[in-house]
Design brief:
Layout lengths: L2 H17 L2 H18 L9 H11 L6 E7 L5 H17 L3 E6 L4 H16 L9 E6 L4 H7 L3 H4 L26 E6 L5 H9 L7 E6 L4 H4 L9 E4 H15 L10 H29 L8
Parallel strand pairs: 1-2, 1-4, 2-3, 4-5, 5-6
């Protein structure tokens, strides 16, 4: 093929790119998301330092200890945060840790209830309410809730979410404040959430317990200054959930990987869509550069 023929062919290709109907791009992006979801594609995950730190912090809690998990998000952020919440509860239950569930967001209790029903009860039927876990539910007051918990838990939560008096719950017998917990985990979408647990929980009782957090991608910038001192570990969005799921399932396989595995499932369409975007950016730049007039003309 002569140089002139090659140039004509290249110009023809460039012309196709520049005249491409944008609806084909929309279709390609839609398929790049839909196909991995339908096929439930999972790609290998290689856990990073923050996911490993979160896993190790929970592994370091002595078996049988009591921990507190705060569901500080609502259904709008569940796509990012529910996978890590499910893996967290499965991990803690696999280590026989006793769990107290709270929520600083009004619909956080709903998310905690969902996790109890889909993870704790079916995978760990030996867990008994009031003995091995307690659902305290939502309390209004934002960081004020944490401040009172740091000094007087029964005053903040005289009853659990079902109305049962705290003194009738064996798990909370003798529990006066946050010092009774070995670890606090906040799965958080913003204010109030993980940052407030660090400032008003860990800040009021330094070294009394460890703190880990799960965070949306938008919020994580507010938490990074506290890692790894006040926050021992952070799970960041779906990527962090997928990495954490990998660590948990390696040591504690779940009876149903479709529940403890949603983070990895959701990373599939992200990966394919990002690769498509990169490819389109490269093609767009190639078309722009090749379409410039020769000889330095502008």
């Amino acid at each position: 093929m002569t140089n002139e023929a090659q140039t004509t062919k290249a110009r023809g290709f460039i012309g196709v790119l520049t005249r491409l109907d944008r609806r084909w791009i929309f279709l390609a992006m839609g398929l790049s998301i839909a196909v991995p979801i339908l096929l439930k594609l999972r790609f290998p995950e290689y856990p990073g330092p923050m996911a490993k730190a979160t896993f190790n912090a929970i592994e370091a809690v002595p078996e049988g200890s009591t921990i507190l998990i705060s569901f500080d998000y609502d259904p709008a952020s569940a796509a990012e945060l529910q996978p890590m919440a499910s893996a967290l509860v499965h991990h803690c239950a696999s280590r026989r840790l006793k769990m107290v569930f709270t929520a600083l967001w009004p619909l956080g209790k709903q998310q905690a209830d969902r996790t109890i029903e889909t993870v704790l009860k079916p995978f760990h039927p030996e867990y008994k309410e009031g003995v091995d876990y307690v659902q305290l539910g939502f309390q209004a007051g934002n960081e004020g809730v944490i401040k009172l918990l740091a000094t007087n838990l029964p005053k903040q939560y005289p009853n659990d979410a079902s109305g049962e008096a705290i003194e009738n719950l064996p798990l909370l017998e003798g529990v006066e404040d946050l010092g009774a917990f070995k670890l606090i985990a906040s799965v958080s979408a913003g204010y109030p959430g993980a940052k407030e647990w660090v400032l008003y929980g860990n800040g009021a009782m330094p070294d009394a317990f460890s703190v880990v957090a799960g965070s949306t991608g938008v919020q994580v910038g507010q938490l990074l200054p506290y890692y790894p001192q006040q926050l021992e570990g952070i799970l960041v969005a779906v990527k962090g959930a997928a990495e954490y799921e990998t660590l948990v399932e390696e040591k504690y396989p779940a009876p149903d990987s479709t529940v403890i595995g949603q983070g990895r499932v959701r990373m599939g369409p992200q990966l394919v869509a990002h690769l498509l975007m990169i490819g389109l950016i490269i093609l767009g730049n190639v078309a722009m550069i090749a379409g410039r007039p020769r000889g330095g003309a502008r």
